[in-house]
Design brief:
The chain is mainly α and 70 residues long. The model has no long low-confidence stretch (mean pLDDT 77).
C-alpha cells in the first residue's frame, strides 16, 4: 500500500510556522513602536539668530579640530 500524497509537505509546514512566528513578533513590536510626541528633551538651546550665522566656536568644536591634527 502506498500513502496518499498530501499537498502539505514538511517544508510547507515549517515555512508556514516561520511566517506565523514572524507575524506574531511583528504584531508584538508594533505597539512599542508608536511614540507619543513630547516636549523637546533639551530645553537649554539658544534661539536661532535672526540674520543667520548660527555657527559658534565652542569647546566641543575646538576639541574636534584638535583631534584632526596630524
Amino acid at each position: 500500500m502506498s500513502q496518499p500524497h498530501s499537498k502539505l509537505s514538511r517544508r510547507t509546514l515549517f515555512a508556514g510556522a516561520a511566517t506565523a512566528g514572524a507575524a506574531a513578533a511583528a504584531v508584538a513590536l508594533i505597539p512599542s513602536a508608536v511614540v507619543e510626541p513630547t516636549a523637546p528633551a533639551v530645553s537649554g538651546l539658544k534661539p536661532p539668530p535672526e540674520r543667520g550665522g548660527g555657527y559658534q566656536l565652542t569647546e566641543r568644536v575646538k576639541q574636534y579640530y584638535r583631534s584632526t591634527l596630524i
